[in-house]
Design goal:
The complex is a heterodimer of chains A (about 260) and B (about 290). With about 260 residues, chain A is α/β, with parallel strands linked by helices. In chain A, about 40% of the residues lie in helices and about 15% in strands. Chain B is α/β, with parallel strands linked by helices and about 290 residues long. Helices cover about 40% and strands about 15% of the residues of chain B. Chain B has eleven helices and eight strands. Chain B has an eight-stranded parallel β-sheet with strand order 1-2-3-4-5-6-7-8, sandwiched between helices. The chains are: A alpha/beta (about 260), B alpha/beta (about 290).
């Protein structure tokens, strides 16, 4: 069975997607033998009423897949009273983690508010999913151009926050493996595969950051689900590595055993 | 878990019907498509020689049941190669073709900035050699008259032309063509078969740009595996004008193949996209060169 650590509910503003209705998304994931999916929300990227977006996300996850869809709420530390959003994600919605979009929320990882958010989320034992981008920068809407997140400051931050449980989503193709390896060495950082590219890219990522740090993520429904699946196939991994990527690494991260 | 079990477990019967590998082939319980990839490169692969790099490409292609790779350009990549460099890179591809004549095909890399030499190189590699098409990259936009002799030569032999295109919101390279340029070229040469490389990258625009120009096909390579790409292409162009390709080794075979395997399209359309269309485009050249189809 598969744990998909990167799916997203609601609507992508620029395209209708097969699977952008939660019931359909859950059904399609189940058809692919996904047993658990960690779900963020497109609304959490674009809406200012992020508390409302997180409530809908939690409700949809309960309604369409209680225990199957795990909600990862959005926190935008540039919004007023964002700490309350973090509290609600944890205490009211019982979320296991949060998802951040620094580039869409207009802050860099150098911003002190990011360090504070990492610290507060870590203190609550939340997994922090950091989405580096959502789509190829070259094909974005001309009025909505958003460059990917610059990872350069992250290793230092991770090093100074030993309780952090961080996961990078959408490791875009232009990222070289060296900074990812440095991050893996710096602390408890995990990586999902949806945007890892190049022939045999997943195998190279595993060589760089270790097989325990790589998690299955499809970026569905923005991407075809089959892309991530076939990347694992293309990588030619051993059976233990396949099991680790498909589910065991995610289970360990979720349970806190990675820590 | 073997390959067959993996795919069956993960993709279900839909993908199983299309993804094959030597260890799974032939299978009697499925009717696997013969997957041909229009667009692979030797760059971004490990190895010091064309043969080593092609061996690596084929190892990964085998895992996904890709039967044939059309190779073009050598390594390292040159955006505006001089004649001697063109010859060098085409020789690299020729070396791969000699080693794997049943698994690889070649498109000759030409540069319209050296039009006269490009014609000579076409004759060496296609007319008198084993290559079956033309690859044009980013040396010069393809709407100019410098392209005409090259296109006329290719059209006379019914050799398809794969022209790289992008529509980058961040701006194209100075010599980088767009789908609009391809349409301009194709309308001047209605007898030529031109493949709009990458469908302009921004496929929602690229499909619309080429839609009315019937001698232009699109290929799928080199962009994100965005959900909906192949559905829109088949809807707007017809499945016969959509060709699977990867842009490996810069892209994975997996992400590009997923565009077709994951698409909600009829199975007959999927089979066309995965290989039948490319075989149809190449039939005159393959027949002329004695390939069995």
């Amino acid at each position: 069975m598969i744990t998909d650590t990167n799916v997203t509910l609601s609507r992508w503003p620029f395209r209708r997607l097969i699977g952008d209705e939660p019931a359909e998304l859950a059904a399609r994931l189940r058809k692919h033998k996904v047993s658990q999916a960690w779900a963020g929300s497109f609304d959490g990227i674009f809406h200012k009423d992020i508390a409302g977006a997180n409530s809908r996300l939690a409700l949809d996850c309960r309604r369409y897949g209680d225990g199957f869809l795990l909600p990862f709420g959005s926190v935008n530390p540039k919004l007023p009273d964002w700490r309350e959003d973090l509290r609600r994600c944890h205490e009211e919605h019982r979320m296991r983690g949060i998802r951040l979009h620094p580039n869409y929320h207009a802050y860099t990882l150098m911003d002190p508010v990011f360090a504070e958010l990492l610290k507060l989320a870590s203190a609550r034992g939340l997994i922090v999913q950091l989405a580096l981008c959502m789509e190829d920068e070259r094909t974005q809407h001309p009025l909505m151009r958003v460059p990917p997140v610059d990872l350069a400051p992250l290793a230092g931050l991770v090093n100074s926050e030993p309780k952090v449980r961080l996961m990078l989503l959408n490791c875009y193709p232009q990222l070289s493996l060296d900074p990812l390896a440095a991050l893996a060495s710096a602390g408890n950082v995990h990586f999902e595969i949806s945007m890892v590219e190049g022939v045999g890219g997943v195998a190279r990522l595993i060589e760089s950051v270790s097989g325990k740090r790589v998690l299955f993520g499809s970026h569905y429904p923005l991407f075809y689900f089959e892309s991530a699946l076939l990347k694992v196939q293309e990588a030619g991994l051993s059976e233990p590595h396949i099991k680790a990527v498909f589910a065991e690494n995610a289970r360990r991260l979720l349970s806190g055993q990675d820590f | 878990m073997n390959r067959r079990a993996f795919i069956e477990h993960s993709c279900g019967s839909l993908a199983l019907a299309f993804v094959q590998s030597p260890s799974m082939f032939p299978t009697t319980s499925n009717a696997p498509a013969h997957i041909w990839d229009l667009h692979s490169h030797l760059s971004h692969m490990p190895g010091d020689s064309a043969e080593e790099r092609t061996a690596a490409l084929l190892k990964f292609a085998d895992r996904l049941g890709i039967e044939r790779l059309v190779l073009s350009m050598g390594f390292p990549l040159h955006e505006n190669p001089a004649p001697e460099r063109l010859r060098f890179e085409n020789d690299q591809v020729l070396a791969a073709l000699r080693r794997w004549p049943d698994r690889t095909l070649g498109f000759v890399y030409l540069n319209p900035n050296h039009a006269e030499f490009s014609i000579e190189e076409f004759d060496r590699c296609v007319r008198d050699g084993p290559m079956v098409g033309v690859k044009l990259w980013v040396a010069r936009r393809c709407n100019g008259p410098e392209l005409d002799p090259i296109v006329q030569r290719a059209a006379a032999m019914k050799a398809p032309i794969l022209q790289h295109t992008w529509l980058k919101v961040s701006g194209n390279l100075p010599g980088e063509s767009t789908p609009y340029d391809v349409v301009e070229l194709a309308r001047r040469h209605p007898d030529a078969t031109i493949v709009c490389g990458h469908c302009g990258g921004d496929w929602e625009q690229g499909i619309r740009v080429v839609r009315a120009t019937r001698n232009v096909c699109i290929e799928l390579a080199g962009s994100d595996p965005s959900n909906g790409f192949v559905e829109m292409a088949v809807r707007e162009l017809g499945a016969e004008r959509v060709v699977f390709s990867s842009d490996a080794g810069g892209r994975s075979f997996a992400s590009q193949l997923a565009k077709v395997i994951g698409a909600q399209i009829p199975e007959a359309a999927r089979k066309l996209v995965l290989g039948d269309n490319l075989r149809r485009l190449l039939t005159p050249m393959l027949t002329a060169k004695g390939h069995r189809l």
